[in-house]
Request: fold
Amino acid sequence: STPKAAAKRVLTVGPDIQMKGEITTCDRVVIEGAVDATLSEVHTVELAESGSLKGTAEVQDAEISGSFEGDLVVRGRLIIY
Reply:
């Protein structure tokens, strides 16, 4: 793989982790815990079945399996399970 591919910016919030704040300039955010945050300049958000996201998210692609509460703007592909 190229060095650029290896340098992907991925944030994983694991199960039973609670996080509040702002998440920016991330290629992929995987949420398995509870997040209360604003997401901006994020390419892909994956909300696992065990995860919850409360807040505002402006992303390119989103896959939602868990619970979402707030404002969501998806410019590309949105998948809701």
